Each structure stands twice: as structure tokens, then as C-alpha cells.
Amino acid sequence: MVASSGLAEGKTPREGWSSRSAFILAAVGAAVGLGNLWRFPTLAGENGGGAFVLFYVGCVFLLGLPLVVSEIFIGRTGQDDAAGSIRKVAEKSGVSKAWAGFGLLGVIAAFLILSFYSVVAGWVLYYVGVLGGDFLGAIGSGDLFRGALPGESQEMIQGRMGDLFANPWLLLAMHAIFMGVTFTIVARGIGSGIETAATVLMPMFFILLVGITIYGAFVGNLTEAVAFLFTPDWSKLTPQVMNTALGQALFSLSLGVAGLITYGSYIKGSAGLGPTSVTIAFADTGVALIAGLMIFPIVFAVGLDPAAGPTLVFQTLPFAFQTMPAGALIGFLFFVLVLVAAVTSSISLLEVPVAWGIGEMGWSRPKSTMIFGGSAFLVGVACLLGYNVWSDVRLLGFWSLFAETDILDTIDGFTGKVMLPLGAFFTAIFVGWRADRKLVEEMTGLSGFWLSLWRFLIAWLCPLAVGFILVTGLFPEILGS
Ligand code: PFF
């Protein structure tokens, strides 16, 4: 039985991308997000730069890229939500349908990530407002090209973040607006919602990115940043740092949460998965590295600490924009860029559980969007309260890895360090060992050398490396460190 359309009798046809390039645009949009522009620079800074960055790039191409192919393969073959797609591939391969369980794991991970993602995107929205207001002021004063936030001291600029964190209502308002936008797009469906958003927003994103990068190359101090980002001090590569880098590679490529299974399931017709996956991996990694090269020259130029943590982007950059020519304009555009990237990713995060609700529970799209968007919003509220009224709460306080982390960081850490690697591990075992070889060959479009290489990576390197990094990262005492 070859039911490749996934159409059950009496059902309306399942939605789909209008073209292959629409899929690529949406998938790159999903991949490129806060993970690249906020989380990558934060983690690179916290974990000592070079060794982390190089290990990260290794993870992307040796482990991430084969997994990108695998997830899209599952979705494209199954033409269903994450769990349903895995089930269909299992059926066609004659193996247990219980494998669909790791699809559910992904759905839960995507849901949890969305909850805090929207909170962080809310911070970005706040800064769009702050710098947008300042830019309007610059226009008003007739000095379009002045620096940002003139007359404010470094303490005042950095203090803004603390003020925001201390104000649950402001955090809530920003989170609500962002989640509302995400919700509205996803509720409209694949074609008129997600695809349209990606088609409008992604070109805008790349124009802004290129513009700001060229600007940065002229005004920033690249040398120290390049040395920091690319000179490895391998002694800094502890098992936890490796675990963090792997988690980040998976997060950034939208892997391990069934994001690409879900998006891949809307591909109609044929697509060579090799070139498509390479495009996604290169675009995603390119943007992360460019973000590093945009942010660290500024961090060093103004003598700030690269290991500042999650507030790095928000406290450091606005201050730097103060002293830069046209800083008011560029500062505003930078946060618009981050916001645009966040929207094209958050819609993919919400789409994972929404598609699951439609496929597995039989809910309508509006109902599924309402249920998952609404409950992710509520979990997000707990995250933002963790910065003020619930700042003492430690969700996984019994676990030394999370003993010191607030609610948002705990959910971020647990999904990134535990759930995504687990999802990736199961995907690799399933596609590498259980899926029918003929089916894989036919549906991925891979052949010859590339097929053999991919098979080796997905069947051997991915499970071994991901399994090893997962276990040693979570239980470093195994290595005696
Ligand atoms: N890849 C996104 C980022 O780097 O910001 C985050 C993400 C989106 C993860 C979608 C997972 C996903 F399904």
C-alpha cells in the first residue's frame, strides 16, 4: 500500500507549501531565530568562545545536517503530524508503531520551547519600542544620524533591562503581543499564514542582516572578536560545554522537536533533500556566526564582559549604539531584525503541537491553535514571573545542573540539554536502523557517495556521539570530572 498523499477518505486535503522554495524559505525562517541572534552569542560568550564555536560548527555539519535530512524525510514521507508521520514511516518499513512516541516527545519539547521563546521575544519587542521611540526622536530633532539614547549613562541604559525584569506587567504585555502575532499567523494555516509570513519576512530579514553587517564591518573592531570566536582553548571544552554546544546546534536547526518533520510533511511532490538540507544548515550557521561577528566587536570595543549571559544582547548593544554614527537608526533596525527572525521561528514552534492536535486529536486548526497557543502562553507567564515574584522558584532544584536556574532558564536548559538530544537520538536510530532502506533512498533523493556518507553519519556517528554527549553532559562524574 502506497498512500503517499496521506488522504483519508472524506477528509479535506491536507495543506501544503506552494513550491519547493516556499518550503526552504519557511524552514530557514524556522531555523534562523533567537537561537542565532540571542542564544548563540550568549552561549559562545559564557563558554569561552573559540572551542565552543568550533565544536558547535562540527555538531551542525556532522550531526545536525544528517538529522535535518532525516526529519524532512520522515515528514515528507508521512504527510502527517510529527507522531503520525513517524507512524506511517514505521508502517511502511514494517516496524513497531511505538516509534511514534518520540514524535510526541518532540511535540512536548516544541511546546515548552515556545513558552519561553515568546517571553524572550517580548524583551526584543520592548527594545524595538525603546529604540524605535528614540529613532523617532532623532527624526524629530532633525538629526537622523545621531547615536542612540543620547545623554543616557551606561548604568541607565543597562538598568533598563533590570527595570523590565522587575515589571511583570510590562513583561506580560510584551509576551502577550508576541504570542498573539504567532497565534494569528498559525491560525491562518500553512499557505495564507506561515508561508505568506515567511515570504514577506525572510527577504526583509536578509536585507537588514546584510545592511547591518556591512555597517558593523566599518565601525566595529573585528580583530579581537575574531580571535575570541575562532581561537580555541580546548581546555574549556568540558563535557557540559559539549552538551550545551550540541543542544544549541539542535535548537538552532530546529531539530529534536519534530519541527522539520512537521514542516517537511507539507512538502508536496518531489524534492532532493540533500541540497535543501545543506541550504538550511548553511543559512542557519552563517547567520549565527554573523551575529557573533556583529555583536562581539562592539562588546570588546566598549570593554564589556562577553560572558554577561542572556542579557548580553540587550544591555551591551544599546549602549554601543550610543557612540556609533547613525546608532539610533541601526539600533532600531537591529532589534527589528531580531524580532522578524523570532516570528518566523515561533510560528514553526507553535505549528508542531498544532499539527499534532489536528492530526492526532482531530481538532480543527483554530481549536488546536487556541489550545496550544493559550497554554504555551500560560507557561510563558510562569517563566516571566520567575524574574520577579517567583524568583526563588527552582523547578528542578534537586538536580545540580539546574539548582541555580530560574524558571525560564530551567525550561530552556532542560529542553536543550535533555529533550532535544533525546529526540535527535531516537530520530537517528529510527531512520538509521529501522526505516526501510529503499524508502529512504527513494524519498531523500540521495545516492552514491552522499547516500553512503549520510547513512554512516546517521546510523553510527549520530547515535554514538549524541548518546555520549548526552550522558556525559548530564552526569559528568562518569568521566571523573
Ligand atoms: N531554530 C530556532 C532558533 O534558532 O531560534 C528555534 C526553534 C524553532 C527550535 C523551531 C525548534 C523549532 F521547531
Q: How would you characterize this protein structure?
A:
The chain has 481 residues and is an all-alpha fold. The protein contains 18 helices and no strands. α1 crosses α8 and α8 runs antiparallel to α14. The relative contact order is 0.20. The N terminus is likely disordered. Bound molecules: 4-fluoro-L-phenylalanine. 4-fluoro-L-phenylalanine (PFF) binds next to α1, α2, α5, α10 and α14.
Any chance you could write out the topology, listing elements then pairs?
Elements: H1 20-31, H2 34-46, H3 50-78, H4 82-93, H5 101-140, H6 154-165, H7 168-187, H8 190-219, H9 222-230, H10 239-252, H11 259-264, H12 273-301, H13 312-323, H14 327-361, H15 365-385, H16 407-434, H17 437-444, H18 448-474
The chain binds 4-fluoro-L-phenylalanine (PFF).
4-fluoro-L-phenylalanine (PFF) binds at residues 30-31, 33-36, 110, 113, 251-252, 254, 257, 259, 345, 348-349, 352.
Number of strands: 0
Q: What global shape is seen?
A: globular
Helix fraction by DSSP (H/I, runs of at least 4): over 70%
Query: Uncertain runs with pLDDT below 50, 5 residues or more?
Result: 1-10
Q: How much is the average pLDDT? A: 92
Continuous helix count: 18
**N-to-C CA distance:** 53 Å
Named once each, the bound ligands are: 4-fluoro-L-phenylalanine
- Largest β-sheet summary: none
Amount of beta strand:
under 5%
Helix and strand pattern: HHHHHHHHHHHHHHHHHH
Radius of gyration from the alpha-carbon trace, in angstroms: 22 Å
Would you tell me the structural class of the helices and strands?
A: mainly alpha
